[in-house]
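Onboarding guide, step 5: your first structure request.
Type a short instruction followed by the sequence, for example:

Predict the 3D structure of this protein.
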Amino acid sequence: MIKAVLFDFDGVLFDTETYDNKLLRDYLISINSPIPGERMKLLICSDKTKDIFDDVIAGYEDQVDKESFKKGLIADISEKRKHLPFADLVFEDTGRCVKWLKEQGYLIACASSSSLDYVQRGLKEGKVAQYFDLMVSGDDFTRSKPDPDIYLYCAKKLQVQPEECLVVEDSPNGIASGKAAGIHVVVRRDHFLGLNQEGGDDYIDTFDELPAILKRL
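The system replies with structure tokens like these:
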């Protein structure tokens, strides 16, 4: 029996990934970079343990200094992400979903690789913070997704077993993290980034499909 639902943040509760892609492309334009805008998708949902910038600048090494480009882009995006319009980016079915879950007695957590301040601000501005029993940031763990630590921690803090949880993810690392924790993983389908979403247990396009899955489990 499922007692707790653990959500990722970006791309699951909020449509921040398409917005981030625009910010990344805007940065390329601002510095007149020769790097194709399509390469910026590589930086979204990337594995934080790897330097994906090698792939981003591949073929342009003679025109772009990787470290300077990386430093400038991170500084620019970090500043702009402080002002993300979360109220506009929250998926229209997010509020309806978490409200229903709370009414049904489920425990609810948000487990994100983003900073805790970012998560807390997003949930508050998206007007859904009151439904969450726990908010956790990957910054608090030595090993980030795809390692299972963050989801195992959530289960422990909510005082439930991993098999009593359900994870909702969209990224390859997030899916792997949930599965490694021994948790049933529901994948919110990506129709923008072209993510490899293999390995999930169930797939949904909207949260309206979640109650049926919970009932079955």
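Each response can be followed by summary notes, for example: The longest strand covers residues 107-112.
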